[in-house]
Structures are given as C-alpha cells and as structure tokens.
Design goal:
With 232 residues, this protein is an alpha+beta fold. The chain contains eight helices and eight strands, in the order H-H-H-E-H-E-E-H-E-E-E-E-E-H-H-H. The strands form two sheets. It has a six-stranded antiparallel β-sheet with strand order 1-5-6-7-3-4. A two-stranded antiparallel sheet has the order 2-8. A hairpin with a 6-residue loop joins strand 5 and strand 6.
C-alpha cells in the first residue's frame, strides 16, 4: 500500500509543474562560490516558500522512507537554495524519529522524476533534509486519539483510482457515497480532539474536501500533512 501511495503522490505532484515554472531558484548575490551551481539548476528546479504547510510549525516526524538527515546549521543554510546539497555529516532517519520538524520550502525538479520535494528542519536547525511526502507524517498520526480519524481516511484512500483507470458511473457514485460517509465520521471524531490538534486536523480535513478528496477519487497529498501518513 505504501508503494501505491507513493505512486499516486508522484502522479498528483507531476501535474503541478506549471505552478512552479514561472519562477526560479534565487541565489545570494554575495555568495559567488555557488552562483554557478545555482544557475545550472535554474532551468530544471524551482524552490518556493510554502506558508500553507509552514504555518503549522514543528508537527512533522520522519520515517524510514526519508532521506538521510543532515546535521548542522550550516547544512540547513545551504539547503535553503539547493535541494541537491549533500552534506557529509548525516544521521539515519531512525535515530531522529522522535524529533519534530517544520516544512520550510517546497521544490519541483525534473530530475526528481516529477515529484515534489520538501525541505524540513528541526527547531534549532540541527537536523534538516529534503525529502518527499512518503518520508514524513504528522507526529500524532499513530496516536490512539487520532485513530478514529485515520481509519475512515484509510478506507477513502483505498477507493482512490489512478488517472488511467476507468470505472462506471454507478461504481463512481457508490464510492463517492461511501467516501462521504467515512469523511463525516472522520470530522465527527476530529471535533472531539483538543487544542491545536483539533484545529490542525479539522483544517486539514476541510482543505482535503476542498481539494476533491471525496469526489475526485484521487489523493490530494501534496499540500496536506495529515494525509501524508495515509496507507503507510
């Protein structure tokens, strides 16, 4: 199921290329040492701020699908404008699984096979990495309190289809009806959560519905942290 999610994510993000095509990576004019490298990637990669995700702060944890985690504040500064930066000092994602990260930037690159990349960093910028959404999840995703939300969302995701798959109007209508039922269950449970978690989950569900999570039968994963853990 993890591979299905990764593939659907790849297909969904590939269609967003146009969103990033109008702008390019910006370099620090005072830093002549990497200006050539930045120029080299100008035509194939775009890095942008992503306030829609960053506003939630440090709520993301990494899993074994993440890239090796770079260590050091200097590494973070270099990665801000270079999604290809490789730091010699790294640590396994397994060793930082309890560290919370913030999504800082997003990048689209042809040499990433069309997938979106996300720059995440810990509070003190000690740990940072560029990774895809299958390598991350909401820190409380597996908590007992959230399972009443997660389980119906998993059922919805299992009804998702690939773009090339054709289903009858009757089958589509049935899936949408079941999706609506499960989605309402998730919202009902989310309303019982407390504090910031309640705010985050309800906002994520609202955005998922707006993005067509119920009716399009595809997974709008790119800009929805809550959905990154679905089907893992």
């Amino acid at each position: 199921m993890k591979s299905k999610k990764a593939l659907i994510s790849l297909l969904a993000t590939a269609s967003l290329a146009a969103l990033f095509s109008a702008s390019s990576v910006t370099a620090n004019a005072a830093d002549n040492s990497n200006s050539t490298a930045i120029a080299k990637f100008d035509k194939v990669i775009t890095i942008k701020n992503i306030p829609r995700l960053s506003k939630w702060g440090y709520i993301v944890t990494v899993n074994s699908d993440s890239q090796p985690i770079s260590v050091g504040k200097d590494s973070y500064q270099k990665m801000l404008n270079d999604s290809e930066f490789k730091n010699k000092a790294t640590i396994s994602p397994k060793k930082v699984k309890n560290v919370k990260f913030k999504v800082v930037k997003i990048a689209y690159a042809k040499h990433h096979n069309g997938a979106l990349m996300y720059l995440i960093t810990s509070k003190d910028n000690k740990y940072s990495t560029w990774t895809t959404n299958p390598g991350m999840q909401y820190y409380a995703f597996k908590s007992k309190a959230l399972q009443g939300v997660v389980k119906p969302l998993n059922r919805i995701s299992k009804r998702a289809t690939y773009k090339w798959q054709k289903i009858s109007k009757k089958a589509r209508a049935t899936r949408i009806r079941k999706n609506e039922y499960d989605f309402n269950l998730a919202v009902k449970v989310a309303k019982k959560l407390k504090g910031q978690q309640r705010k985050f989950v309800l906002a994520s569900l609202k955005q998922a519905k707006k993005d067509g999570y119920i009716t399009k039968l595809t997974l709008p994963l790119a800009f929805n942290i809550l959905l990154w853990g679905i089907d893992q």
